[in-house]
Amino acid sequence: MASYTTTKFSSNGGSNGYKDAPVVYDPEMIHQGVNLSDPEELEAHIQVLDVRERLRARRRRAIRLFSVAFCIVMVALMAGLGLMTRKGKSNVTAAAGSTQSPISTSLPPSSAIGSLPLPPADLASKCSATALQSQQGFLICEGACEVADCCTIPEEFALSCSKGNENACQQYLQYCSILQTTPAVSPISDEEIRSSIDEACIGLVPSSLIDSDCVALCRKGFCCFEDDTIGCEPNCQTYFNCAAAFQSQQQQQQQQQQQQQQATSTATNPISNPVNQEDSVLKQQIDAICGTAIETVSPPGENSCESICAPAYCCFNHLCVPTSDVDCQDYSACYLLYADVNDVKEDITTANLGDEVHEACAGLLDINEAINNEACNAICSPGACCFEEKMSCSNVDCAMYAECIVLHPNFIPVSKAEVTDACQNHNDANLQSEEPTLCEQLCSLHVMQCCFHLGGDCDDAVLLGDNSVYCDRYQACAVLGTDGSSLIQSHKDELEAACTGGTSRRSKCIQLCSSATCCYSSSVEESCAHVDASVTCSDYEACDVLYG
Fold first, then answer.
1. Got the DSSP string for 60-112?
2. On the chain, which terminus has fewer CB atoms closer than 10 Å, C or N?
3. pTM score, whole prediction
4. Where are the domains of the chain?
5. How far is the CA of 348 from the CAs of 343, 344, 379, 397, in angstroms?
């Protein structure tokens, strides 16, 4: 049977089109069970055939990748079995030649194999809302958090590191989750990335590279310095000056592996493990001193609960990260001392705080100058909640931090009245401008989908209260259209930014693409022609990354 080539209906001429591309179909297959006299049914059937062909191509690619991965895994398993066999033989030989009872040996636990380093001490500042407002700041936070991507993978998968690293994963996710809720910065070119790397890395000595901005910026390009660069996606010329950062990271990993091996070997003989003994003594001492609420409020002194718990302040404070030498579990009894830690209490909350903020921040002209000013950042950090709608400011006098607005230029405390005013002034003439109107900025794609296209089916109830209350604020956004037919340009840009932002923004991409799942259905009954004819699939091309 001969085949013929046809072109699908264009999205410019109809609301159900996807991508204009020639596709080869079998006429006999099309005629089976299809009413050719019904253009709508024929169009839906052609769309399904195209989706099926794309899925078959993806399956072929997946099979090839799986074959390569399977071979690599088998080689690694064979090598591991060989090492275990040789190690077992050596242990048997040693046991036979000794009069003492043999010491049992075993492989290290899986948590040691996939052990994560604790996050850098300045992760909170690297991933603050202020830092993410610049391109370089976004890259630094993303690079610092990339090492903990395995924390989000379910435990049953081999690439997961969540089991055995609960403490480290919790600390990473506490600060890295902001990447999923922060709008992506405008795309950054390779030249800009290289310029940021040069600025952060050139001139640093090896000892200062650990957990530095240089390492965070270079992390995506570390594959360029591996022995096998197959599959390395970045432009390695961009990461030319990252060699020192790569070597520093390798040395740090080797040191961590040695420490893990020592911990594993000493775990079988607690007597030879003085570190465990010291930790146990410290924990007993803390439990004894801080065991009751009465003792925690005793006058400060060398042996008071307050003094012995001081090193663990960051274990109970979400604004900072504890240092690597502090085991927060040993300081669990200090909880009584910091029971109210979420209410920010800083020594700088004094009568002249407003004057101190003015002195530190008044002369700064823009966000870039403010971010690089340590004094302004330090004095304003306790008042960051004043510029974050989802943060609580129960014990913070926001009036004192008014001049910290220079660190938060995009802060817009949205109210129903402000949305109404912005959208009443919205008109079609403004749509000809390249810049989105204020109404389009306030009525984001998520707001439109949540409150209009999906009938109020939002996922913000946990953070923002009842959905009806949330959507009531955005009633005036209806001026942009409530049927979800064609996306305006600002919403296309928002979708593109979410779906090209890497794994850190994957959940945001999935959220925004949920309205267009019918574009990827292989069933006629579930295609957009039958489910939601208002969806224009070509507007959701950025969602291809979820189905590729």
1. HHHHHHHHHHHHHHHHHHHHHHHHHHHHHHHHHHHHHT-SSPPPP--PPPHHH
2. N
3. 0.28
4. 4-92, 116-262, 273-336, 353-407, 416-546
5. 14, 11, 8, 12
